[in-house]
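Lab meeting tomorrow. Look over both lines:
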Amino acid sequence: MTSVSLPAARLTPRQLLAGIGTTGLVAGALDITAACLKYTLLTHKNPLGVLRFVASGAVGPAALTGGLASALGGLLLHFLIAFSWTTLYFGLYPRVAALRRRPAAAGLLYGVVVWLVMNLGVVPLSQVPRRPFNPVSAATEMGILMLCIGLPIGLLTARLHAAQPAAIR
């Protein structure tokens, strides 16, 4: 079976910003919802703990015992990260034909890349308290990133580019 990859549409700056904004919000909301659900179901604790944990990456362990301000800081940091991954994908999309051939598969693979970079690069360099490696937890977290970050970014990016008139492709 052959797959065809059309060139990516050229988006206006307004379309690009709107696409990144919408896609980043969707992916970020899906991811934080899944993370909070997982945390709450496994620990029976308040999901604000997830947001405080995210905040601890920037401000250290004090965020873990912080109040609403720590949680809001974590939410802001979480969406900053989601928008960063979205922006990177939008930048790669016109240049990498494989992303256009199979948007769902590319998005799922992108979720794996996000997990690897975050867990092997970003988190170790942050101030997040170290946790022992747990393969079940790692697989669950990777699955969340595949389905909630990678897949929506891959599909929504492809949809936005496909919706553009052929004249601007």
User: Anything to note?
Assistant: The two ends are 25 Å apart (CA to CA).
